[in-house]
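Teaching assistant here, posting this on the class forum so everyone can see the example we discussed in section. The complex has three components, and the goal was to see what a joint structure prediction looks like when all of them are supplied at once.
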Amino acid sequence: MTRERLLNAALVLALFAVPAWALWADEPFTITLATRAVIFALAAVGLNIALGLGGLVSLGHAVFFGIGGYAMGILASHAQNYTPIMEAPFLIEGTKSMPIIWLVAVLASGLAAWLIGLLSLRTSGVYFIMITLAFGQMAYFFATSWPTYGGEDGLSIYVRNGFPGLNTLVPIQFYGICLAWLLLVLALNRALMRSRFGLALNAARQVPDRVRAVGLDPPRLQLVALVLSGAITGLAGALFADLNRFVSPTMLSWQMSGEIMVFVIIGGVARLFGPVAGAGFYVLIEHWLGGVSEYWQIFLGLVLLLVVLFGKGGLVGMIAGARK
Amino acid sequence: MTAVLAATDLRKSFGALKATDGVSLTLREGEIHAIIGPNGAGKSTLIAQLCGSLAPDAGTVSFLGCNVTAQPVAARARMGLARTFQTSALAMEDTVLQNALLGALGASGKPWHFFAPVARDRGLKGRAEAALDAVGLADLRDVRTADLSHGQRRQLEVAVALTLEPKAFVMDEPMAGLGQEGSAQLTSFLADLKRTAPILLVEHDMDAVFALADRISVLVYGRIIATGTVDEIRRDAAVREAYLGDEA
Amino acid sequence: MSPILLAEQVLNGLQSGVMLFLMAAGLTLIFGVMGLINLAHGSLYMVGAFAAATVAGLTGSFVLALVTALAGAALAGALMEVVVIRRLYARDHLDQVLATFALILIFSEGTRWAFGSFPLYLDTPDWLSGTVQLPGGITYPAYRLALIGVGLVVGVGLWWLNARTRLGIRIRAGENDREMIAALGVDIGRLYTLVFALGAGLAGLAGALVGAIQSVQVGMGEPVLILAFVVIVIGGIGSIRGALIGALLVGLTGTLGSVLLPELFKLFTDASSAATLGSAFSSMAIYVLMAGVLIWRPTGLFGARS
């Protein structure tokens, strides 16, 4: 356990040291890469609550990531075009304010998770995997064929949204916002794992019959886990759209769902810092191998295959040993 | 005396097989009521209907005077019906204490705390530790459940049921695989426990059943062929017929 | 809408449903026998299409192209099973999902590396390029009609294989009790490879057949794969009959939805927004169908309980 703590500390250190170095060396692109890694990590922390703690193999988390992205895209595009989102029965205007966008992203993706969960949690096992995947496709095709917000082409936002007191256009300041979110959510996740809810959810994954026999209802616990999970991934989606100043149906695609899952698994499922290690690793090899070969995803596939077949516990598991 | 738990004319078929064929039985305050019967008699199916994991085709289950036939497992558990499983249903990755805490958490009915650590929750911990103490697992509280011996897991099963501070226990073969010494220990423990709450005991270990039971019901092919005290059951012709065949 | 147009759309729905059935039958068979969820099934569809396009380009023979697609995908499937898949049977679904996701990355990028990103084209053969006059004044492309025929032949073939052959008996036994048939001396490893190759071959055949009416390109397999998942969720996982019914339902819902929903919206709103709304909602129609089936029967129409 101490080795895992050491590794976690090293990861946190890297989250501060890498951008600090980039700032010193005047490498803004490195800061952008680091921001990308931090946002992916946040999305994966969200998935890890459902997947690692709740045992819900959701292959549709891109829905929440994309809803967060579109929450940003829709609100900001109305604000930049000075058109209200709706006028009747009451006026709703767009906004360029990050806090409001985050709130909307969290609420909308949490609501979507609740609806999807209500239906999907009637099933389990391989049905659950396929159904979450299918709901993901449903959202994806809806976004591609709905022309109001760009359809297949997506939505571009010209200027990054604002946060009071900060200049979000400066890469390191936007990185700071994303990092603050990641650390806050990690702290909440740590508390969650040790809380009553975490205890019950953890047991519902392992022995649902026992959980019922003590008077708790596993599907309700799992539904709440899915809502929390979806809301966090949605928040990450809003930040990701803001990083790129662009949102498109790609964020809703099933490949995106697969990638978020890959972050969790390469890093180490149900490990607090697994998603951070996984997302960091992914962005690194995406950058390095992407520079070497256009077909770098072949290598990503091979790495993933090896991790799944031979490396139980992901990166964190390999470095820090099996869970106590 | 009123029944704590009662089944009235329960019926359950799987295709042509009548697994439960008109079973009526009661569990009264302060008693151990044992259900015995040969393999395939329908004991597990009966327990599943009493606890709510299987819906009967016909008949009713009542608990504490309420008709709970339509209530799910969790609702019956919250009313105070605690069960132990034939094959241990424990969170193997977690510690002994965490399993007991889960029971205490279920009994509290308040799982919706997301921030406060369970480890500092005095109420839950007190309840969990008391249950572990009672079954003699206090020293092993921080051991991972997967590392427990078979007998220790059986004890933990009982401890988790205890944390619920239930109004009745339903125990599915708690002695299975315990060995002589373990059975003897658990037998004396259950003899005391029935003063806390009555126990419906499904058990293969006849020594334990004859030592413990106030009443015994014999289940054969989904029907109860006899109910009575230990002596009555020993003398019952139908029971001798069912168990010993034409030797009787 | 005229009845003739409607009849054509019904035929289109049947045609796409029948092709989905070729995919779904393999998936559901593999899940039923080996308990494996295979995301890379779409890659085998793609392999079949690329094999067919290549052979047709070299030889000009469509039949040879189809045979190559079937054999090539079956071979690729057998290879996949021996190298990777058989290590996954004892693993949980999460590991299966991830490992087969990794296979998709490898197959897709490998194909892109070998063939480039531009689509290939596979032409329908001359002897099937015309239209056929059907009773009731319906003219319908001969090739699409042939696809429906091929799908029905495969359906009957699978039924025959399952019900009438020794392999079918072993497959059904393998679904029920793995240990038992191993104890009876059946080489379970070979049986699994065979079943996997069979499913792969069907996927490859579907890829080649559909490749002739759409373009052959990297990534063509995944949308079909996900539709096939919807099919087997609706039909009930492990049931070939469920796969057939589910595939036809999904095919018809998808096709008719895209035609009828815009018509429906025209009753409420102007033509252009009706078209928009119609296309947006018709793309979701099959998922609504799936959700509906699941509310009604959580394990699908022909699925085993729990």
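For the discussion questions: Chain A has a mean pLDDT of 91. Chain A is about 75% helix and 0% strand. Think about how each of these relates to the inputs above.
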